[in-house]
Automatic annotation (TrEMBL), chain A:
It comes from the Bacteria. Keywords: Membrane, Transmembrane, Transmembrane helix. The lineage of its organism: Bacteria, Bacillati, Actinomycetota, Actinomycetes, Micrococcales. This is Membrane protein, putative. The chain crosses the membrane at residues 98-122, 142-160, 213-237, 249-270, 282-301.
Automatic annotation (TrEMBL), chain B:
It comes from Brevibacterium yomogidense. This is Transcriptional regulator, PadR family. Residues 24-91 form the Transcription regulator PadR N-terminal domain. InterPro entries: Metal_resp_DNA-bind_regulator, Tscrpt_reg_PadR_N, WH-like_DNA-bd_sf, WH_DNA-bd_sf.
Length: 351, 114
């Protein structure tokens, strides 16, 4: 007869943290015992009134009462959640905006990086490479990379969520926790928000600045591309660990590439300093991107951009996949820039 | 028009309104030492609707926050955990009660205006 209650208590306790178990066991056991006792008293009174004692034995009544009590307490998982102090969500409202913002950056970048590296390794390692195989291999191998990036960002934020003490997070809707909020010393609370913060950072400034800082990071990485050695993707044996880019490529092309990156970087620095977008800055960004795409297309069509040792090995000319990729990225970037600027204007007006 | 798959808005809002008041009701009732079921009974008789599966965990949280103290009483046939209001809990209860009265006054005033 005790087994139902025991099983219920076990079902609750195994879902709460170890440290809480003895206490929760005692608590839930006492709760069930108290409720059963009260119900039994009620049942006896009802029976005495109706003179039905003969119909049901004491044990039958107790079994029925036990079931009624446990069903009233409901799902053990829900009760365990009431007892647990740990958050019941992966990423809470405090970090959710940063999380989604970072994902919109990380996922496309991971996709492009994976497409390029997988495309390269396919063309270099396959004897009779063709465009269908290139697309299939590059896309097939890049999808897992995007999932890994997604999982990495999610896990990172889930850890941050759990590493932050409960009371310092905003947006808790638990009445008891709000009472706790009052108890904590004033100094431990967040600094009071004043309108002064508005003057320091115009609305939208944070995201404009964060976007610009991130583009600066990528610009530096792009600037380093000509120096990337073949050893970086384990094909160093192909050209004795020299760069992917042809060392004899005219200085004009390298300098042109860096100048265009530098112009884009100037735009990013201006966005960081002004903390808002303007038509001029957006136009500069879009025009340099277009010029870069045209520049790279011409370079790929007229020059031996790849290292000759590598070029000799690829059965699929680099321009065949690199040019469509460059234009796809450029068009995607132009569209997202225009859309971002429209959202910015809608939210903050023209500057 | 309420979408069929959304929860009943009345039930949802009633739950929200009650959630905050249960804490105040618990603190007020625990001026006298109470164990879980006696408190449930006291609250039910006073007309405060709360389920056992909400109340017991809530008592434990209020204990952890220092608003109630808990003590196991082993003199009775079955050990029972008695909760008593602490000084800190009494101050919070006072503040909450003031807020509650102010809210009642505000709502009464609003109700009259329209």
């Amino acid at each position: 007869m005790r087994t139902l209650t025991d099983r219920y208590v076990h079902a609750v306790v195994r879902r709460v943290p170890d440290a809480m178990r003895p206490e929760v066991t005692a608590d839930v056991t006492a709760m069930i015992a108290d409720m059963t006792e009260a119900r039994m008293a009620d049942a006896r009174m009802t029976e005495a009134r109706h003179d039905e004692i003969a119909a049901a034995t004491e044990a039958d009544v107790e079994a029925a009462v036990e079931i009624a009590v446990l069903e009233e307490l409901g799902d053990p998982a829900v009760l365990a959640r009431e007892y647990s102090d740990s958050p019941q969500h992966l990423i809470g409202p405090q970090y959710f905006p940063v999380y989604t913002w970072l994902l919109t950056w990380v996922l496309p970048v991971a996709l492009v990086a994976a497409l390029v590296s997988n495309g390269l390794s396919y063309t270099l390692s396959t004897a009779d490479a063709h465009i269908g195989g290139l697309l299939g291999t590059a896309i097939g191998k890049s999808i897992p990379a995007v999932f890994i990036a997604f999982a990495a960002v999610t896990i990172l934020f889930a850890i941050i969520e759990r590493a932050t003490p409960m009371g310092t997070q905003a947006g808790t809707d638990n009445a008891a926790e709000q009472v706790g909020e009052k108890l904590r010393p004033v100094a431990a609370r967040r600094p009071r928000w004043t309108v002064d913060s508005l003057k320091e950072v115009p609305p939208g400034g944070t995201s404009v600045r964060a976007d610009a800082i991130l583009s600066l990071v990528f610009l530096v990485l792009l600037a380093l591309v000509p120096f990337v050695p073949t050893t970086a993707v384990y094909v160093g044996h192909l050209n004795d660990g020299e760069t992917f880019i042809n060392p004899d490529l005219g200085l004009f092309w390298l300098i042109g590439y860096w100048v265009l990156l530098a112009v884009t970087a100037v735009g990013a620095v201006l966005r960081i300093r002004r903390r808002r977008l303007s038509t001029g800055l957006v136009a500069l960004d879009m025009i340099t991107d277009l010029v870069m795409a045209v520049f790279l297309t011409i370079a790929l069509l007229t020059q031996d951009v790849l290292h000759p040792a590598i070029e000799a090995l690829t059965s699929l000319p680099v321009e065949l996949w690199a040019i469509p990729l460059i234009w796809a990225i450029t068009i995607w970037d132009q569209v997202s820039t225009v859309r971002g600027y429209r959202t910015h204007l809608a939210a903050h007006g023209r500057s | 028009m309420i979408p069929a798959d959304s929860p009943d808005p009345l039930a949802l809002h009633l739950q929200e309104v009650r959630r905050g008041t249960v804490v105040l009701a618990c603190l007020t009732a625990c001026r006298e030492p109470q164990y879980g079921y006696s408190l449930l009974d006291t609250l039910a008789q006073a007309g405060v609707q709360v389920e056992a599966n909400t109340l017991y965990p809530l008592l434990r949280r209020l204990d952890k926050q220092g608003l109630l103290t808990a003590e196991w009483n082993t003199d009775e046939p079955r050990p029972r955990k008695y909760y008593t209001l602490t000084d800190a809990g009494a101050r919070i209860a006072d503040d909450l009660r003031t807020e509650w009265l102010a809210l009642t006054a505000s709502l009464t005033a609003l109700w009259k205006d329209i």
